Task: structure prediction
Amino acid sequence: MNPADLWSIVPELWLTGLAIFLLLVDLFTARKTVVGVVAVIGLLLSIIPTGVLLGQDPRTILAGTYAVDGFAVFFKILTVIATALVTLAAMDWLPGRTQYEGEFYALLVFTAVALILMAASTDIILLALSVEFVSLTSYVLAGYLKGNVKSNEAGVKYFLFGATASAVMLFGFSILYGLTGTTNLYEIARRVSDAPLQALSLSVALMLTGFGFKISMVPFHQWTPDVYEGAPTPVAAYLSVASKAAGFAALVRLLMVVVDPRQLNWVPLLAILAAVSMTLGNLLALPQRNIKRMLAYSSISHAGFLLIGVVAFRGDFGTPGLLIYLLGYTFTQLGAFFVAALIGRQLGTDDIPDYAGLSRRAPVSALLMAVFMLSLTGLPPTSVFVGKFYVLAGAIDNGLLWLAIVGVVNSIISLYYYAGVIRAMYIMPAPSTVPLEEPAALQVALGIAGLGTLIIGLYPQPIIDLARSAVLLLRI
Amino acid sequence: MSGILSLIIFLPLLGGLIILFIPKSADRVMKQIALVASIVSLLLSLVLAAQFSRGGGMQFEERYSWIPSIGVNYYLAVDGLSLPLIVLTAVLSVLSVIYSWRIDVRLKEYLFLFLLLETGMLGVFAALDFFLFYVFWEITLVPMYFLIGIWGGPRREYAAIKFFLFTLVGSLAMLLAILIMYFNAEPHTFSMLELIRQQPLADTPLLAALAFWGFFLSFAIKVPMWPFHTWLPDAHVEAPTAASVILAGVLLKMGTYGFLRISLPMLPETFKAYAFFIAVLALLGIVYGALVAMAQTDLKKLVAYSSVNHMGYVMLGTAAAAGAVGDPSKAAAAATALNGAVFEMIAHGVITGALFFVVGVIYDYRAHTRGVDEFGGLGAKLPVYTGITTIAMLASLGLPGLMGFVAEFLVFLGSFGVFPYLTAVAVTGVIFTAAMFLWTIQRIFLGAPNPRWATLPDMDAREKLTLVPLAVLMIVFGLFPKPLLDVINAAMTSLVTALR
Result:
């Protein structure tokens, strides 16, 4: 191993050290908020070494198993932002619900490390290991409220589905290894052209199952609503953005690097899966009364939209669009979940009708929630609009007008249930006019999510630049 | 004078943002800020009109790079088509703020949304970059949804979501059409003027048809053309008075503006191919709107359906101009039809804006009913109200000497040169319109006084302040349409020349 390689993984080392340090801090303090604050500071500091990597030449390190490229850096930034925001939100949500608050933050940071590894792996063994790493910590986080039946159900369900999906994916990896005799993605890419098509198809299909589970793609989505509903709200928020993003990162890297569409044309299959995910997720979101279940189904639909970005990989719009969409969606979706966390905390309910009159009782949160709902619908000037604009443009640029039309129709359907939340908050009469307390850390997290949503919507140029350089550097 | 357009557009929003930070108890201050913001915007738009040079093409250009990697610019300018619409928007916004003085429910949100809406509408008429245009277009949706949904009548929730869904269908169809245009232009561009110059879809009829129908769906829903009009009566009837005025006066014009600014110059051959069909739809709107309006007993619904009828005239003129594309012998007729169409847009904004205020005056603070049959003999009790209502209704039915007549006359004159038979049938719509309004005047103001309304007061000072300017405009431009018509004519003549 080249010792200089270590300089390139400072962010990972720093975050791993941070997670261990958090466990130690937790031992010596009774005020668990301290642990959360240390976690947030540590996460933010990790941006510095990540930023240093930004301008560097793309390369693989550690014997070709690990990528240092713009793509990996993009997902490092995304993961750190999401983890810091979720930690902030958890600091106001957790107290009084569990006695293991300190460990929660450590687990979150460990998950962040795993997600970052997953997005940067260029070796299928490392990829498999990081996927398992993510899964392990996520199962624990989903079932974190030990006394809560639904949280337990979420943990077990996530575990059972996840274990099956991982096993199937590993089988796909093993076929890939069998076909090429190597575990390195770039090496596989060179040798796979001689592989028999049927075996390669089987391998891709099996791998797609594993990633489909991670990104909640139809037909591997069934776990999503139950897990989001039962898991602690900050965890649901985290799974719906960070875990999904890392799943997309690994999927894109694998497809782009290994499977040449001229050899095995995966475009039609993924295009159909995108259309089905969008449509089914949306239709199932329509009747939901529980905000977390609604956001879960809508996240399935957004997975479909994101898949358009994967499918429309030719040109300057699809793949950068996927990254822009993911980042924009991160702010918006986290914000929506944070409002849900706030209401869940203050009113003890996750039912949308109970949001009635929120505009009077918590005006700032209600306004932000309205912005998040409009952003999720895809109305400008918000971050998800920019993402949707990009992937739809990508679809048209790739000659997939029909897919763009399916996307547009789904945006219209989604307005109905997103507007339902706004309707409850602004139009339905308030059962009480007592102002809701809006806790500080959660407010900060909400504010950042809101600012991120609007700033990306109004001035997307920096994000576009970042996403474009990330994609350019992907293929090495 | 660079930057004046941006000032006109964003001053209302700035006022709205300031209002958000004013304490809830200071409602007077909030209203004053809203009034000042909209009045300054109006004054600046009048400065714009005064400095505008007729026949000078696009003026007061502002162009800054916004998202350079996909070529999106912050690009504003006005010509003879957009200038009158901007002034109209500013005028109706000021009057609406004045009319809304008595709003007391959730005032802060109301004013903020209203001013946001004004910014969106002004932006739509000034934007020359498709991306920017789309952003402004969508910005108008959200405030209107809230205005109907929160301050509307009994069925407001249904009406609000229906409005939102219908128009979102349209705008997303437009988004796809914009993207088709963008990717077929070489180099890729969102600049409307550049796309008009390039005609990127001229050689690909199938794509051109797709883009055309994408735009069509969007604009036709907005206008609304028959059979896409079903959201309109619901939205109008439930919306609060000021929102109805803005909806009829300005938002509907966004649809016809789109046809004239985008569909016609960007896809002329395609528009020509479907012009007759669209003219038939316009004709159906004219006749259907008038007949259904006649059957209404709810005054507000009556005015709403009369909008379907009047917007039909605008579309008839537009379709006639499209039908004349490529035929130099019909160019004069096409220019006349377009002049009529644009004049009708302004006239309808003034007249129908006034009519919705008129409905509000009687319904909001006096009778609390809009049943046409429940009145009678009001003419003796409320002379000022009666006078203004009568002027507005006569203007709407197209009485010579008032604004509506000039518009309809030009539309018929121009359209007759292109679609003579259709136009002949369309003229009968005037008869229905006249019958409807005259019958309405008769039922409300004439006849034996209904003792129920014996104590009804006449219009107060603030109501006069909102309605008298509009009545004056109807008469002034009815008798002396030249200043306005010259501005429009210069833009329309150059449009027709470009299409030849």
In short: The longest strand of chain B covers residues 59-67. DSSP finds 20 helices and two strands in chain B.
